[in-house]
């Protein structure tokens, strides 16, 4: 950095009254130079107010002034680096995203928006300043998520192993009311007998799935020890039931049909007629399709928006279908070959900006163009459904636990790398 540019950055901002000889008044000053950005004294003062207020509310003692000053300055330097990274990635938080975030903040605190405004004002912060503070935090979060997510690798075996541990903990106190059908098949049975028994057991499963009564079918066909009781084994915990039954049960709920599965004596079918102590999970899955246009050196953000608006117009006129246009124009190769179809999934799998748009979009309506870290999109929700995801929920929980652990580790490593690779000059009061 040459002496002239350094003088410009470190110079004190002054307000001169043209018709008087009043002394210059300092408006703000630079505390630190961070690459091509700066941390201002006003930023430090704003953070000092926030930290002091939080300490008072939580009855905590602040560290010595010099320590506090260094901690605040370092935090602002790291935040500035993340904002610069967000700018490089083209991340922007629009007013609708900002308003949704503020609404969520109010809801989490059990406040109305008016009550939140009053609370912010009482803390000495204007509403405009508060909005920009939230926008800043959202921008930083998006940049961090975009960069750290790509560093994380989670193997399927890791998820399966942790999910198994969680299942075992959850199932310890669960009781199942089981019904059982057993078709006998000797090990030395000829091929024709084996095929006949196999065909019959699948026919019985089909009857159960289409409303057949397990008690009637057990009494008519089962060769198991509870056949005359309609196959009813009563209420059992996992440790109380035969191992061959326990090995087949994971997180299935009431009404689940398990099997057929083999043992040394033949084929078995289980039905869970009732369950106690099992937390079942029903979730909303969304079937969506999208078209992605990525800005480039030759295609600006405005150009990408215009291209997507032209595509929407073609769909509405009936010139071409959404699927055909996705195949032609979408920059997402994974979904483009399927007409933009993203398949069935919960919206948690999407990046925040895409998730927010899909969650709010009515079924059958094409969104306006919007931007995420991947580029510009239009999206349409083609269907929604409620599904029992008890077993999947445990795996999702295991995945989230692993992801959060690794995210925190990788986020810290990323921030350290960002800080180590930056040009930072801390300026004193005497400059």
TrEMBL record:
Entry keyword Signal: yes
Localization in the cell: Periplasm
Keywords from the UniProt entry: Chaperone, Isomerase, Periplasm, Repeat, Rotamase, Signal
Pfam families: Rotamase, Rotamase_3, SurA_N
SUPFAM superfamilies on file: FKBP-like, Triger factor/SurA peptide-binding domain-like
Chief location bin: periplasm
The reaction(s) this protein catalyses: [protein]-peptidylproline (omega=180) = [protein]-peptidylproline (omega=0)
Domain of life: Bacteria
Domain PpiC, first and last residues per copy: 173-274, 283-383
Entry EC no(s): 5.2.1.8
Root EC class: isomerase
Signal peptide range in chain numbering: 1-22
GO molecular function term, any single one: isomerase activity
UniProt cross-references to NCBIfam families, sorted A to Z: PRK10770.1
HAMAP family on file: Chaperone_SurA
Domain comment in the entry: The PPIase activity resides only in the second parvulin domain. The N-terminal region and the C-terminal tail are necessary and sufficient for the chaperone activity of SurA. The PPIase activity is dispensable for SurA to function as a chaperone. The N-terminal region and the C-terminal tail are also required for porin recognition.
Protein's job: Chaperone involved in the correct folding and assembly of outer membrane proteins. Recognizes specific patterns of aromatic residues and the orientation of their side chains, which are found more frequently in integral outer membrane proteins. May act in both early periplasmic and late outer membrane-associated steps of protein maturation.
Name recorded for this polypeptide: Chaperone SurA
Organism of provenance: Salinivibrio proteolyticus
The gene coding this protein: surA
């Amino acid at each position: 950095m040459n002496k002239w540019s350094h003088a410009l950055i470190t110079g004190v901002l002054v307000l001169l009254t043209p018709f008087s000889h009043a002394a210059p008044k300092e408006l703000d000053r630079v505390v630190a130079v961070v690459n091509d950005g700066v941390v201002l004294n006003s930023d430090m003062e704003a953070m000092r107010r926030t930290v002091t207020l939080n300490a008072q509310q939580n009855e905590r003692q602040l560290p010595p002034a010099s320590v506090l000053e260094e901690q605040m300055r370092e935090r602002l330097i790291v935040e500035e680096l993340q904002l610069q990274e967000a700018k490089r990635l083209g991340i922007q938080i629009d007013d609708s995203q900002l308003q949704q975030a503020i609404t969520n903040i109010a809801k989490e605190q059990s406040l109305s928006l008016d009550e939140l405004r009053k609370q912010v004002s009482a803390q000495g912060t204007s509403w405009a300043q508060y909005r920009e503070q939230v926008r800043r935090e959202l921008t930083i979060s998006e940049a961090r998520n975009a960069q750290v997510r790509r560093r994380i690798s989670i193997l399927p075996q890791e998820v399966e192993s942790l999910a198994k541990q969680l299942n075992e903990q959850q199932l310890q106190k669960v009781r199942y009311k089981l019904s059982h059908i057993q078709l006998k098949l000797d090990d030395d049975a000829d091929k024709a007998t084996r095929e006949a028994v196999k065909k019959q057991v699948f026919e019985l499963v089909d009857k159960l799935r289409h409303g057949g009564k397990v008690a009637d079918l057990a009494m008519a066909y089962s060769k198991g020890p509870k056949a005359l009781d309609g196959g009813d084994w009563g209420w059992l915990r996992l440790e109380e039931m035969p191992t061959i039954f326990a090995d087949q049960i994971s997180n299935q709920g009431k009404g689940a049909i398990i099997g057929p599965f083999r043992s040394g004596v033949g084929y078995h079918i289980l039905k869970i007629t009732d369950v106690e102590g099992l937390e079942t999970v029903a979730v909303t899955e969304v079937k969506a399709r999208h078209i992605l246009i990525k800005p480039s050196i030759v295609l600006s953000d405005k150009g990408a928006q215009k291209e997507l608006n032209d595509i929407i117009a073609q769909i509405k006129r009936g010139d071409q279908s959404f699927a055909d246009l996705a195949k032609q124009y979408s920059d997402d190769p994974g979904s483009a070959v399927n007409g933009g179809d993203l398949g069935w999934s919960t919206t948690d799998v999407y990046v925040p900006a895409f998730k927010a748009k899909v969650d709010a979009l009515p079924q059958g309506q094409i969104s306006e163009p919007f931007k995420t870290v991947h580029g510009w999109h239009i999206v349409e929700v083609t269907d929604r459904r409620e599904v029992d995801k008890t077993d999947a929920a445990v795996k999702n929980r295991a995945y989230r636990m692993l992801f959060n652990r690794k995210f925190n580790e990788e986020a810290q490593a990323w921030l350290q790398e960002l800080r180590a690779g930056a040009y930072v000059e801390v300026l004193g009061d005497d400059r």
